[in-house]
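Posting this for the archive.
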Amino acid sequence: MNLIEIERTLRQLRLSGMADTLSTRVMEAQVGQPPFLETLANLLQDELDRRRSRLTERRYKRSGLDERPTLADFDWRFNPKLPRAACFELHTLKFVGEGANALIIGKPGTGKSHVAKAVAYQATLQGYDVRHVEADTEFARYGLASAPEQAGLLKGWIEPDLLILDDLFLARRIADVSAELLQAIVHQRYKLRRAIVITSNRVVQDWGKYLGDATMATTILDRLMHRCSMLEFEGRSYRLKEAAARIAVTPEQA
């Protein structure tokens, strides 16, 4: 076989990682004359790296994330009183392996969603199955779905290793069907010891009002907080800061 035929055969065997780097590895071998096993090992590593990259990309697409934030690109100096150590502890993902939860509660614009998404993205990189959900929007969609569609949505929120419910109670009062859905999600994931991260502008003491049922709120919080980290975000709004900076730019500067 010549080089083109070998590359074609590799692709037929679905070894595209090896096929993509074959010519480079051949040139490397001709120039440096490394042992055959070293060249073979490099080609096998290329294949493994390609497969890992594809798996990571599939997990990211399945997660529902719309960006790839990290804690490194977060401006911790703007609100120095944020619980930085607790955020980095979440980022270790120990709580996911333990089936624990996290509640990130605080004022709008203080970075709650950024931290939750950074944790979710890190989890996809580490091989976990993740779902990120804009809570109020997706719960409303669930309420309008048919029974089979609802079953599929619920399954998609129960099965992942990590579920992010972002901006819960953004619209204050949620519909009864949404409240019942939240209770079902928390209850089933609690039994399966699967982790949840919830971000919300609403303090937990008021959840009964937003659910329309104080007993239901107690039931939900009882399970959520049994194994849970509570992070409180106070401070100024990053979004208002960015808006003020844009307004401050003169037409000449723009």
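The chain has two domains: 3-63, 84-242. The longest helix spans residues 36-63.
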